[in-house]
Amino acid sequence: MRRRACEPPRLRAPLGPASPAASLPEGEPGPGPRFLALHLPWLATEILRLPGPVLTWHMQGNRRLVAAADPAALALGVRPGQALGDAQALAPGVPAHPDRPEAAAARLSDLALWSLRIAPLAAPEPPDGLLVNITGAVGLHGGEGEVLRRAVAGLARLGHAASGAVAGSAAAAMALARCGIPALVPGGGEATALAPLPIEVLRLEAGVAAGLRRLGLHRIGEVLSQPRAPLARRFGAGLVLALDRATGIVPAPFRSIRPPPDRHAALDVEEPLITRTAIEIAAEHLLARLCAGLEREGRGLRRLVLRAHRADGGVQELAVGLGLASRDPRHLSRLLSPRLEELAPGFGFDRIALLAEATELLAAAQSGLEGEDGRAALAALLDRVAQRLPAWGLRPRESHWPERAVVRADPLAPGTAPAAVPAGWAARPRPLRLLRRPERLEAMALLPDDPPVRILWRARWIPVRAAEGPERLEPEWWRDRPGRPVRDYYRLEIPDGRRLWVCRSGGPGSSRWYLHGILP
């Protein structure tokens, strides 16, 4: 359950594109580091992209509790930590969705990457914060107040309400932001700015915070005024370290997010490219650049996208998929070249771009080793075939029902072997060819449980020379609807030597017979 140490009234509605920080006086940055902290209090509900009111819930033991609520739901009396039933009684009709902490964490990482436009060092601060090291970058934006205003306005355009603060320590800036105080703390003023805040904003262990409250220490300033040695003896060095990091005495480690590598290559030309030869030359040039970058990263392409920008503003796109990762420009050129016929240049293309949309690790391999060249050659052949015809393979899957026992898969993907037959169980033969649509049959048997002695197949009565069965297959209750009929399978041999795999749907006494496959 997310718990917020403080939640002033100003945070009960999304902030507008401007921030109150724009009207605050500029602090004196001083020679030390400067940090911008941004708090996104409604991130857990904003990622749902739904109009309010809305809330999310999570399981705690066998209880459903409210995990987060947007401002509209809070106005109706919903609070995080409530039982979901109580919240729905207070706000009937408010949609409740399962909490998605993984999606929120992924969105926070994306926003941290977006924050790199403010300064080159930024990091997510889970579960709902961002930290940006703006040391040395303030002058590029016109001051700290302008940095804060632009950051909050940018997040608002992305659909996220935020509050922020700037201070000389990351912990102080984040504490102020989480309390909705858009402060610009001058260098060395962190202790004064933090003094009125509750101790929970320091993210202390629950036992430490509870112990301080039992002593009557509810504010950070009250804790800072106490002798350090007794605090360390009673609550451990972690409390003193948290205070020192918040006040800027001890620098805290800052692990900036690393942007993903830019895996694309583009070519801009003054004279638009119209002929196919010119487009091919440009594509080969870009392939060489793109593959050289992938080689430095030790990666190979699985999906390549070509974007051709026309002089009149239109954009055309081609995509090429590969069965095995590759960074061989010649192979990629052979795949891409036939697809260039699909482009309609019109007045010409003034920009050609190649994008590595999907990549994977590709270790360097020595050519000529037995087995390696054969697999690579097969992959190259399948890649060329797949540009004109669908190419796929079959992979076994655990299932009792024959039509579910295999699935389509990448033809070069490593297969998964089916589970071994348990000891004492006889392995049942299965058909080499399974009919996509079972053929309806009529059958005659001496007794209801006996195998057929004659079958009516394709308007002709055929005697059965030999038969084995039945083999009963029960429905898969975890997948099938209730009441699905059982199947009894028989292996039949007819006079021309063919062996058929037939089934009776519904058990003994049923007259629904089907041919499901051809046995070897």
Annotate the secondary structure layout.
Elements: E1 35-39, H1 43-46, E2 55-60, E3 63-69, H2 71-75, H3 84-90, E4 96-98, H4 101-115, E5 121-125, E6 129-133, H5 144-157, E7 163-167, H6 170-178, H7 190-194, H8 206-214, H9 220-224, H10 228-235, H11 237-247, E8 264-273, H12 276-297, E9 299-310, E10 315-326, H13 329-336, E11 349-361, H14 372-386, E12 393-396, E13 406-409, E14 433-445, E15 452-457, E16 460-463, E17 466-473, E18 487-493, E19 499-505, E20 513-519
Parallel strand pairs: 2-4
Antiparallel strand pairs: 1-6, 1-7, 2-3, 5-6, 8-11, 9-10, 9-11, 12-13, 14-15, 14-20, 15-16, 17-18, 18-19, 19-20
Helix pairs in contact: 6-11, 10-11, 12-13
What is the CATH topology descriptor of the largest domain? Dna Ligase, domain 1
The number of distinct structural domains comes to 4
| Global morphology | flat
Say which CATH homologous superfamily of the largest domain is assigned: DNA polymerase, Y-family, little finger domain
* Main sheet record: 7 strands, antiparallel
CATH architecture of the largest domain: 2-Layer Sandwich
The beta-strand count equals: 20
* Coarse structural class: alpha+beta
Fraction of residues in helix: 25-40%
Structure summary:
This is Protein ImuB. Residues 1-10 have a biased composition (Basic and acidic residues). By secondary structure, the protein is an alpha+beta fold.
